[in-house]
What does this fold into?
Amino acid sequence: MTPSAHTPLSDTDRGILALEARTFRYVGAKERVIREQLGLTPTAYFVRLNALLDEPAALEAAPALVHRLRARRTSALAREHVARDGAGQGRVA
It folds into this structure.
């Protein structure tokens, strides 16, 4: 597959990206919308979202959103790594 020829996003994938661009004011509101509008469980939604962040078509469709979510994912993984290995033990990376 050439770099410019990637799989187009499905309607569900576009819906996931659109939903991630929104903000929600109330606890549980996002999960309700995930179920009602996309017909997914929250777990399935987040698994698909995580996979979407690595797809060129998603980056092309919503570059700022994908970059922001990738950065959030990277910082969450770094925090998890520090927590697992023990914070404050002089480790840099």
Observations:
- Residues 63-85 form the longest helix (23 residues).
- The CA atoms of residues 12 and 38 lie 7 Å apart.
